[in-house]
Amino acid sequence: MDLVRILARASRPYTGYIALVIVLQLVTTLATLYLPDLNAKIIDQGVARADIPYIWRVGGVMLAVAFVQVIAAVAAVWFAARAAMSVGRDVRRDVYTRVNEFSAEDLSHFGTATLVTRGTNDVQQVQMVFLLFLNFMVAAPIMALGGIIMAVRQDPGMSWLVVVAVGALFVVVGVLISLLLPMFKSMQGKLDNINGVLREQIAGIRVVRAFGREEFEEERFRGANEEITRVSLNIGRVFVMLFPVIMLILNLATAAVLWFGGHRVDEGVVEVGALTAFMQYLMQILMAVMMGTFMAMMLPRALVCARRINELLAHEPAIPAPERTRTPERSEGVVELRGVSYTYPGAEEPVLNDVTFTATPGTTTAIIGSTGSGKTTLLSLIPRLHAASSGSVLVDGTDVTEMDRADLVERVSMVPQKAYLFSGTVATNLRMGNPEATDAELWEALATAQAGFVEDLDMPIAQGGTNVSGGQRQRLCIARMLVARPKVYLFDDSFSALDAVTDAKVREAMTAYTRDATVIVVAQRVASISGADQILVMEAGRIVARGTHDELLESSETYREICASQEEVHA
Fold first, then answer.
1. Rounded-to-integer distance, Cα 481 and Cα 412, Å
2. What angle do CA 427, 430, 434 make, to 5 degrees?
């Protein structure tokens, strides 16, 4: 079972806490079972005989047992909560670690909304069930079994009442689980859906407002909200029926004990104290079953959540970590692609076909082509964001699929097409490239990236960099990569939000940084790459021409068309 598998693995470091909880729950349960017996003795042997010293003596024992029961119960809950919260923390850590190992293909396979739900709500459900298990399911079986033994010991003639009452409760629990399991499975799916809709609407709020689609998006959210509400109401209806049925069984059991027990007391078969103890034991048995029922209410949802978490943890990344890593013998920054092809999962045609080129230190390689020609995909193969379907991608003579991730990141750094900043400050964002960077190095990188708008390194940055403009985001991302000082600089259309003057200033200022490094640039503007040492012209996933700007103007019809189209636009 997925739930057992997850809890067994995550709770292994906390076996000491769990063992202590079991011992404390055992002490609490035994004390609970012993109290009705002492109460029966006080009634039958103390009160009936007016033996005051006996009442004080046995009453003192009852107080001591009750005190031990309270202390053990409090301690058990404390240690159970400690163990359960620790297990939840570790499962969340495992989910987060596994997601960090995923490639872009894996993230697309699951989707952002369900990954967020599985790492938060699903883990929370598993954590709560584990807490209930430690608090209830250790004590419930002991209390139920001990209560049956003690009840039969008090009056074997009414043991049939125990069988009837417990059997009725078990039937209720069985029906409950059969109804709730599919409902909770549907509920988690609806929760994924509403998270996805809400996240998409918040991220795209500018687009929604620009096109006046607020009412449409409100209707879409209302539909997702009504779906999860409908499932929640169905679950609530089951719970509404559950508790009255349980209380009916408890009250009928109590009435039956008083009715049949009263006749037995009148006949002299059993004493009043024994009847009182039998009733208390019956209540304890039914309460133990109620604990199991309460656990059963949470269990179906936890089973669904555990299955989803285990599916995530068991998923093998599309780009697995190499079993044996290789470290390049040199550290120069030579990038080489040999016959590389790549096909997206589920696609009929490859997006890259037989791509071969070499980029060496001290040179700039530019990649240009029409939209959809495979430029971004090609660049993402170098830092191993995607793995080539065929062919080899080498950095300093070593295939990137055989390199340790930390070693690869140290050599290769990339500014993605979509500039992204994390919540914090300018300094915390820039130090992602190099945590040991000094303030002077940060200011130098900002100056090189023409980020003159930054007046203070503690300038706040909102999540995603939404409190700065698109051009400012790009310049901060460029500065972040400059702080890292890699051997290979990758720019994926990273200057698109800059005006021509700022673009030229940034490229000129970066010369000192990239003098001995390998620079690979994906660009749309010919003017930005005309000075590159080699330009690769891509069309339909293939390199159809290569050379310098002047060479391509003479030899490549595709390149000439790109230049002509941009001249017409500027004209």
1. 10
2. 110
Count of beta carbons in the 10 Å neighbourhood of residue 8: 10
* Residue 377 Cα distances to 260, 278, 344, 351, 480, angstroms: 81, 75, 10, 8, 22
CB distance 281 to 154 below 8 Å? yes
Q: How many CA atoms lie within 13 A of 284 on its CB side?
A: 28
Q: Taking every pair of C-alpha atoms in the chain, what is the biggest distance, in angstroms?
A: 120
Query: 150-176: per-residue pLDDT in tens?
Result: 777 766 777 777 778 778 877 877 787
Q: Does residue 102 contact residue 296 with C-beta atoms inside 8 Å?
A: no
| 363-410: pLDDT as tens digits | 989 998 888 888 888 898 898 888 888 889 999 888 888 888 888 888
Domains, the chain, ordered by start = 91-314 (1.20.1560.10), 335-570 (3.40.50.300)
Q: Residue 19 to residues 133, 226, 296: CA-CA distances in angstroms?
A: 13, 44, 23
Residue 40 CB partners (closer than 8 Å, separation 6+): 154, 271, 273, 274, 276, 277
- The pLDDT value recorded for residue 42 is 67
What is the C-alpha to C-alpha distance for residues 148 and 235, in angstroms, rounded to an integer?
Answer: 32
pLDDT over threshold 80, residue 52: no
Torsion of CA 232, 237, 238, 240, to 10 degrees: 120
pLDDT at 494 over 60: yes
Mean pLDDT of the chain: 82
* pLDDT score, position 268: 67
Tell how strand 488-492 and strand 412-415 pair up: parallel
pLDDT attached to residue 425:
92
Look at residue 568 in the predicted model and tell me its pLDDT. Answer: 52
Q: Which residues contact 540 (CB under 8 A, 6 or more apart)?
A: 353, 373, 374
CB-based contacts of 386: which residues, under 8 Å, 6+ apart?
103, 104, 105, 319, 342, 377, 380
From the number of C-beta atoms within 10 Å of its C-beta (0-12, 13-18, 19+), residue 174 rates as exposed
Query: 175: which DSSP letter?
Result: H
The percent of residues in the chain predicted with pLDDT above 90, rounded, is: 5
Give the three-class secondary structure for 117.
helix
3-state secondary structure of 259: helix
Q: Do 399 and 405 contact (CB within 8 A), yes or no? A: no
Q: Shortest CA distance to 227 belongs to which of 201, 261, 192, 255?
A: 192
Q: How many CB atoms are located within 10 Å of the residue 373 CB?
A: 22
Q: Which residue has the tokens 């003690």?
A: 150
At 171 the pLDDT is 82
| 361 closest CA partner among 480, 520, 481 | 520
Q: What are 546's strand-pairing partners?
A: 536
Q: Is 110 helix (H, G, I), strand (E, B) or coil?
A: helix
Walk across the sheet containing 542-547 and list its strands.
Answer: 412-415, 488-492, 518-522, 364-369, 534-539, 542-547
Instruction: Assign 488 to helix, strand or coil.
Output: strand
CA distances from 392 to 101, 386, 395, 521 (A): 21, 12, 10, 20
